[in-house]
Structures are given as structure tokens and as C-alpha cells.
Design brief:
Layout lengths: L5 H11 L5 H28 L4 H22 L1 H9 L1 H4 L2 H14 L5 H8 L4 H22 L4
Helix pairs in contact: 2-3, 3-6, 6-7
Keywords: Membrane, Transmembrane, Transmembrane helix
InterPro entries: Spore_V_AC, SpoVA
Pfam family, one: SpoVAC_SpoVAEB
Length: 149
């Protein structure tokens, strides 16, 4: 090993580096994300059968999915789903719920105020700030450019 030149060492190291499993990761993300969305659709269909209007169904479905994501995070199940599904578990609304609950659980030993409450928005905080900020900018631009129409 010590007597190898750079080219030989590079060939040797390329053989030892694990090959990425892109297709496997893509398929698992698709399946996990699809399963989460299917569960969301089942909840939505169930709520529609209960006679709720469209806005109430949309709100209730979101609330239920956030609760499920938080509950599964609390049980330690959502992290395992995330390890399997990657982006498929991170993108839906349940991933947002997971991003809020995980840091809160991690810092619960520091107490409810300086631990749970202050750390809850460590990951979700920037998303909320930039999401709200950009929506205000888009709203103002929409108001300015469509005022006379």
C-alpha cells in the first residue's frame, strides 16, 4: 500500500467506496411518500362521507396527518420510516410534523420552556419564517399588479 502511486491508489480506493443505491432510494421514497399520501386520501374520503364541506375536510385532514406524524415521532416509529423512505417521508405534511417534534423530544430534559418550547422550532422555524415572509411578498405583488382588474 505504501509503495502505490497516485493512479493505483485511486483505482484501489474507487473499488472500496460503496456504490450509491440511487434507484433503490428513489423507489423507496416513492413508495413511502405514496403510502403517506394514500393514507391522507383515505382520511379525506372518510371525512367527506361524514358530510363535511371542502374547507373543513382539508383542514381536518391536515390536522389529523400532523397529529399522526407527531404521534409516530413520539413513539420513535417515524424516524424508522424516514430511514427507509428518505425524502418520501420528509416531504409530506407528516415530515413537517416530525421536524417540529423531534427537536422538542431531544431537548425535553432541559425542561418545558428552555427545552421543548424553545427547541421545537429549531428546524421548522426557518421554514415558517421564510414561508410566511415570501407569502407576504407574493401577496403584496399580487395586490399591486392586479389592483385595477
Amino acid at each position: 500500500m505504501e509503495n502505490m502511486n497516485k493512479k493505483d491508489y485511486q483505482k484501489y480506493s474507487e473499488k472500496k467506496v460503496p456504490k450509491p443505491t440511487y434507484m433503490k432510494n428513489i423507489i423507496l421514497a416513492f413508495l413511502v411518500g405514496g403510502a403517506i399520501c394514500t393514507i391522507g386520501q383515505l382520511i379525506r374520503s372518510w371525512l367527506m362521507k361524514k358530510g363535511l364541506d371542502e374547507k373543513a375536510v382539508a383542514s381536518a385532514t391536515s390536522i389529523i396527518l400532523v397529529f399522526i406524524g407527531a404521534f409516530l415521532t413520539g413513539l420513535g416509529v417515524y424516524d424508522k420510516i424516514g430511514q427507509i423512505g428518505g425524502a418520501g417521508a420528509a416531504i409530506p405534511i407528516t415530515g413537517f410534523s416530525n421536524a417540529m417534534v423531534s427537536p422538542a423530544m431531544e431537548f425535553k430534559t432541559e425542561g418545558f420552556i428552555f427545552g421543548v418550547a424553545s427547541k421545537m422550532f429549531i428546524i421548522a422555524g426557518p421554514v415558517l419564517v421564510y414561508g410566511v415572509g415570501s407569502s407576504v411578498i407574493v401577496g403584496v405583488l399580487h395586490l399591486l399588479f392586479t389592483k385595477g382588474r
